[in-house]
Specification:
The complex is a heterodimer of chains A (313) and B (429).
Chain A: H1 2-32, H2 39-85, H3 90-112, E1 128-132, E2 135-138, H4 139-161, H5 163-173, H6 175-180, H7 185-210, H8 217-232, H9 237-254, H10 261-267, H11 271-277, H12 292-303
Antiparallel strand pairs in A: 1-2
Helix pairs in contact in A: 1-4, 1-7, 1-8, 1-9, 2-3, 2-7, 2-8, 4-5, 4-7, 8-9, 8-12, 10-11
Chain B: H1 2-21, H2 24-49, H3 58-73, H4 87-105, H5 110-127, H6 132-135, E1 141-142, H7 156-179, H8 181-191, H9 193-198, H10 203-229, E2 231-232, H11 239-252, H12 259-274, H13 281-295, H14 303-314, H15 316-347, H16 350-355, E3 365-367, E4 370-372, H17 377-411, H18 417-428
Antiparallel strand pairs in B: 1-2, 3-4
Helix pairs in contact in B: 1-7, 2-7, 2-10, 2-11, 2-12, 3-4, 3-10, 4-5, 4-10, 7-8, 7-10, 8-10, 11-12, 11-13, 14-15, 15-17
The chains are: A mainly alpha (313), B mainly alpha (429).
């Protein structure tokens, strides 16, 4: 039971982390129709910038400055890369961001080497928050979750309660109409792209210290973030939240399930047959934890193509 | 048409003559180039001709590879088929997985299609290490090429001819496919699938078929890879392989039939040639890809056509300075960029960092068999100057092109209807 509780909490925190990255991605997609392949690279850049700045301005300072730097990178990407190829269509934009993600990953390898760097949480934060069944639960995980929740509330309020939010939402919904009414839509696009990048950067700066900071972190998280965004519904913030938590919890819980499909067949009396088939049948659920999200994504795309909360097609 | 045929014939003759000209190591690289070229051509059927951007083609390549390796080991190691026919097994399994995956993926279009292909590939990729019986786990599955038809397939030359035969056959089949009614419908799928549907065609079935055919030829490429390596490992499902085929195809140019093959061949060749010299090859590949996407949507293979059109439009004498300027700019920018990257790579490497003694000047780094001091301005001035010269040349080239177009606009101030039509067509081309 305690084990289950810890897994559940780990899953929730991982889900919240996924949400921090996917929030920006889903907003950018909803607005510009571009699925930004380089988004997870922003997450990685956030971690590396924070690692670089940590010695100079301290952990908390790095946590503030690093997302700003990432936002700057995001703005440059939007202004000087995406806007130039906009006229060739969305596939072309997708490919350009794909190429950029490549360049960013390789540049990181160039400057920091192809191995994890020593980016750690400060000793003051490396404390247990409480203990569950004898095991200590790290306070830093709670901090990560707290930052993500605070961010969700902040963005949600910003989008639904303020004037800026109205303009942004109208630019997402009907960009031409918003432009005709005198709003600077390209500027809004650039702003949202920057903010989305900053959120990913913040996630990287926070999570890089806890997990590892290495040149493959973008690829590892990136695919999962795509899954989240598609499952939640492209363009939907609430959907991204729901899907992040769902996937975080499922992957975390699956690790501790020591059962296989054969056990399911055994209930119907065909257990021996299933075991003799081998392969997928005898594979433990725990070793499938990395596979389940993709299966879930395929399922969602077939059953509910718009995603859990998606409206736009 | 006749010149194109002659070019292809000359190319095939050159490929046939290669084993007499190259060393064994280079011939091995040539085998890899052929496989990459076939894979890219198969990919382009889906991506360039069908307009469906797949991010997970490694799955079909990998399935072809593993099907072939198991076929080689079947019947107590004697092989299911005579060795030269083994890639057929890869084709069959590529077709099977391609039909299933294609049926799922082509339910949707655009970004969703790309995401589904990515998900399917990741599904296979994350599953493969756990299915040890099928994919051999960390060690992979190894095999032996059995003698058949009087050949022992022991030498690289024989493997080369086997690969060449299959690659030429498959590329020819893929080309002939584009001439069939279904091949023309594939183009229709890219251009306007709605209209195709209104005309009464089964768009989903067509998309699935195109996907499956593309996967089938990818499976052949995978099979050839296995036959050349005599082993297969689940690493073939890695996303980097899917990424490589996308980069290669677009760098070559997806709008032309042989563009992706060309791109894949030269990228593989450079990857092989510079792998000893630099660790930054992927970085250069990425930068080249982004540059091509931003400034040359037709890809490298489209460049000769672009120059030809310019010559037709402005005359040879006018265009040559423009071409010279552009080449100069490209060379200069390339040299500057490479110099800078290699310099940074060395200065930021772990060995170099460890060699720095606090308080002393930073030691020199070796590049182009010369020593460069990171502390001296000259070291940094060289790449910056190269980049600046390149940028200036590029700017001049742009201006020259603009001037040519302005002059033409004056000449064509009062064109006849026929001329105006021609100008519009040129502009569109």
């Amino acid at each position: 039971m305690d084990q289950f509780l810890v897994s559940l909490m780990n899953g929730l925190v991982y889900g919240l982390l996924l949400f921090m990255v996917s929030a920006g991605l889903t907003l950018i997609f909803g607005m510009m129709g571009v699925l930004n392949f380089a988004h997870a690279s922003f997450y990685m850049l956030g971690a590396y910038f924070a690692y670089m700045l940590q010695d100079a301005i301290g952990f908390w300072g790095a946590l503030v400055v690093s997302p700003l730097l990432v936002a700057l990178v995001g703005v440059v990407v939007e202004r000087f890369f995406l806007r130039r190829v906009h006229r060739y269509g969305h596939a072309h934009e997708l490919l350009v961001t794909f190429g950029l993600s490549f360049i960013i990953a390789e540049s990181v390898k160039l400057f920091f080497g192809n191995y994890p760097v020593d980016y750690r949480i400060p000793a003051a934060l490396d404390i247990p928050a409480f203990s569950v069944g004898g095991a200590q639960y790290p306070a830093y995980r709670l901090l990560m979750g707290g930052i993500a929740v605070a961010m969700f509330v902040l963005i949600y309020l910003l989008l639904t309660r303020t004037r800026v939010g109205i303009v942004v939402r109208s630019a997402i919904y009907k960009p031409r109409m918003a432009e005709a009414l005198g709003h600077n839509v390209p500027l809004v696009f650039m702003g949202v792209f920057g903010v989305g990048a900053a959120l990913a950067g913040l996630a990287g700066a926070v999570a890089g210290a806890f997990y590892t900071t290495n040149p493959n972190m973008a690829l590892e998280l990136g695919v999962m973030v795509f899954v989240v965004v598609v499952v939640g519904g492209l363009g939907s913030l609430e959907g991204a939240m729901l899907a992040s938590l769902l996937i975080g919890v499922i992957t975390s819980l699956a690790v501790s399930v020591d059962r296989s499909l054969a056990d399911l067949f055994a209930l119907a009396g065909a257990g021996d047959w299933a075991r003799s088939v081998g392969g997928l049948m005898t594979l433990k659920i725990s070793s499938l934890s990395a596979t389940i999200p993709f299966a879930l994504m395929l399922l969602i795309l077939l059953v509910r193509p718009g995603g859990l909360m998606g409206e736009k097609d | 048409m006749k010149t194109a045929f002659l070019c292809v014939a000359a190319g095939v003759a050159a490929l046939l003559a290669l084993p007499f000209l190259l060393s064994q190591g280079l011939l091995n690289a040539a085998v890899q180039m052929l496989i990459a070229a076939l894979f890219a051509t198969a990919y382009n059927l889906l991506c360039g001709q069908g307009g469906m951007l797949s991010f997970g083609h490694a799955a079909y390549f990998g399935v072809g590879a593993f099907a072939t390796v198991h076929a080689m080991n079947a019947v107590g190691g004697a092989g299911l088929l005579p060795t030269p026919l083994l890639p057929v097994v890869g084709a069959v399994f590529g077709l099977l997985l391609g039909s299933i995956a294609g049926w799922f993926a082509t339910q949707r279009t655009g970004t969703y299609f790309a995401m589904i292909t990515l998900a399917i590939a990741e599904l296979v990729h994350s599953l493969a290490p756990h299915l040890k019986g099928l994919f051999g786990g960390e060690a992979g599955v190894s095999s032996m090429r059995m003698p058949a038809w009087g050949f022992d397939f022991g030498s690289t030359t024989q493997v080369y001819y086997l690969t060449l035969g299959w690659a030429l056959l498959c590329v020819a089949l893929l080309y002939l496919y584009t001439r069939t009614p279904m091949g023309r419908l594939t183009f229709g799928l890219r251009e306007n699938s709605h209209r195709l549907r209104f005309l009464g065609y089964d768009v989903h079935g067509l998309g699935t078929a195109v996907f499956a055919i593309s996967a089938m030829f990818s499976g052949v490429a995978g099979g050839l890879q296995v036959m050349s390596n005599e082993s297969a490992n689940y690493v073939v499902f890695d996303p980097s392989l899917s990424a490589a085929v996308i980069l290669n195809s677009y760098i070559g140019g997806v709008k032309m039939f042989l563009g992706p093959a060309f791109g894949a061949a030269i990228m593989t060749f450079f990857g092989y040639a510079v792998s000893d010299l630099t660790q930054s090859w992927l970085l250069y590949q990425g930068i080249l890809f982004v540059l091509v996407m931003m400034f040359m949507p037709t890809g490298l293979a489209g460049l000769p056509g672009m120059v030809r059109r310019l010559v037709q439009r402005f005359g040879f004498a006018q265009v040559m300075p423009l071409v010279a300027l552009s080449c100069g700019a490209a060379l200069s920018l390339g040299a500057g960029g490479v110099f800078l990257v290699e310099l940074l790579r060395r200065v930021f490497s772990q060995d170099y960092r460890a060699a720095i003694v606090a308080g002393n000047d930073w030691p020199a780094v070796t590049l182009l068999s010369r020593d460069w001091l990171p502390g001296s301005p000259i070291t940094w001035l060289v790449p910056v100057a190269l980049l600046a010269v390149g940028a200036a040349l590029a700017w001049l080239a742009r201006r020259r092109r603009a001037a040519l177009e302005a002059a033409e606009a004056v000449d064509a101030a009062a064109p006849t209807a026929l001329e105006a039509d021609a100008i519009v067509k040129e502009g569109l081309a």
